[in-house]
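Researcher: Sequence recovery benchmark, item below. Answer with residues only.
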């Protein structure tokens, strides 16, 4: 088996880095119900998609926090209506508060999950970036492999 030339290795590392940035490595990120479905099945959500997802979740969290604050200002005998399709249905205050609390808990868990994914994607991206930098400094590649430990020795 022939060893790739430094130029081929650099091109390969560059391609891997771009795949991490555009989200074409699927096996690292399983699909999730809140993740938008992509048209090409072999593409995983990219970093920007995850950041957008987190922003949307934070927006939903703020809306639900505002609703919870409104509920705290209401009297216990206040009438609460829930919009279901084109119909307003009467709802008990305790039931409405419980639903909002449940949504807030779910949203908080999803934010944590998405933040973990973002962090993992950024770590992988940074690792590839460092690997490319070390490859560009071929005489110093051994030094880089000693420092970063996860890089192989290129000659």
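Model:
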């Amino acid at each position: 088996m022939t060893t790739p030339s430094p130029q081929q290795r650099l091109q390969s590392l560059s391609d891997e880095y771009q795949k991490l940035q555009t989200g074409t490595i699927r096996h690292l990120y399983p699909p999730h119900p809140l993740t938008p479905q992509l048209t090409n099945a072999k593409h995983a959500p990219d970093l920007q998609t995850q950041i957008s997802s987190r922003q949307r979740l934070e927006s939903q969290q703020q809306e639900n926090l505002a609703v919870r604050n409104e509920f705290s200002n209401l009297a216990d005998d206040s009438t609460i209506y829930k919009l279901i399709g084109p119909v307003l249905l009467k709802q008990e205050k305790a039931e409405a508060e419980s639903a909002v609390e449940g949504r807030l808990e779910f949203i908080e868990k999803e934010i944590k999950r998405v933040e973990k994914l973002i962090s993992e994607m950024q770590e992988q991206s940074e690792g590839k970036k460092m690997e490319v930098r070390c490859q560009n400094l071929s005489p110093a590649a051994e030094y880089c492999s000693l420092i970063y430990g996860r890089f192989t020795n290129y000659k």
